[in-house]
Design brief:
Number of strands: 12
Number of helices: 8
Strand order of the largest sheet: 6-7-8-3-9-10-12-11
Radius of gyration: 20 Å
Order of helices and strands: EEEHEEHEHHHEHEHEEHEE
Strand content: 15-25%
């Protein structure tokens, strides 16, 4: 199990909580919502982190030496810009081989052949393994980055911003290939997105972040949103300039906000759903 327990990052996340074992979950939020910190804190790329990140009960924040051995094998990530995952001087195939060799899993040929299996699942041809990253189209590079993150079938794969650098056709192609891949591997997926439409195709379990705080989470959030921010985000009605409010972080912009919203706002639980809102504001 992968658990985030009250994880905080200055100017980003505030007591972020998440538990995932099997399946998939989406984290929905706009730019500067805090979701951009999930990959760096999980892979140990930033140090000013408080709270606990537990992988099968072991706190990765305190056990940073463990991170090298579990990257790619237990936890991996697809960064929003896939170019950052590849050395421009080395072929696509050599990246698969290097990961296999550095983790003592097999030799160069094993890395190539294993990587090829996942490239094929994603609809990519073998000859792409011999090419340099800049020789791939944006769609091919995105798919290759997904193959690289999943070819060792890690327990957890975090995918950031599927549509970055892609048009409508490219986004659809990558999503269809990703859905096929998800049905073929045992990995659990965490998707970081600002597009509710993308998450609706990938998972029905969603966490909604605003200004680093969770405001709503659970099953079928996108089908039946409760928090005013979630509703506005789905409608495309969120203001460009975002000011964090007191109490509920969205109280400054919420059309239903009252003075009580600027005080401590409790969590309301309804079955598999949780929303941080006053009952009369979110219609409960």
């Amino acid at each position: 199990m992968l658990e985030y327990k009250c994880v905080s990052v200055p100017n980003s996340l505030k007591c972020f909580n998440l538990s995932i074992d099997k399946g998939s979950i989406g984290i929905l939020g706009e730019r500067d919502s805090g979701k951009e910190s999930v990959i760096p804190i999980t892979l140990g790329l930033i140090r000013n982190v408080t709270g606990e990140i537990l992988l099968d009960g072991v706190d990765m924040i305190k056990s940073r030496d463990l991170l090298f051995t579990i990257r790619w094998t237990k936890i991996s990530a697809v960064f929003y810009d896939p170019r950052t995952m590849f050395d421009p001087l080395y072929s696509i195939g050599s990246h698969f081989a290097e990961i296999v060799i550095s983790h003592g899993i097999g030799d160069y040929e094993y890395g190539i052949e294993t990587g090829l299996e996942y490239m094929k699942i994603l609809g990519l041809e073998r000859d792409l393994l011999d090419k340099l990253p800049h020789q791939l189209t944006p769609i091919q590079l995105k798919k290759a980055s997904i193959a690289l993150a999943t070819f060792l079938e890690p327990s957890y794969v975090i995918v950031d911003d599927i549509e970055f650098g892609l048009g409508d056709i490219g986004r659809a192609a990558v999503m269809n290939s990703l859905i096929d891949l998800m049905s073929s591997v045992s990995s659990s997926f965490i998707f970081l997105e600002n597009n509710p439409g993308i998450l609706s195709r990938l998972t029905d379990n969603v966490i909604v972040l605003y200004k680093g705080e969770i405001v709503e989470e659970g099953k079928n959030v996108l089908l039946n949103p409760l928090h005013p921010y979630t509703i506005d985000l789905i409608r495309g009605d969120v203001p460009d300039e975002k000011i964090e409010g007191k109490g509920c972080p969205y109280s400054t912009h919420c059309r239903y906000s009252t003075s009580k919203c600027e005080q401590e706002v409790p969590w309301i639980e309804r079955g598999s759903r949780r929303v941080r809102c006053l009952a009369h504001v979110c219609g409960l």
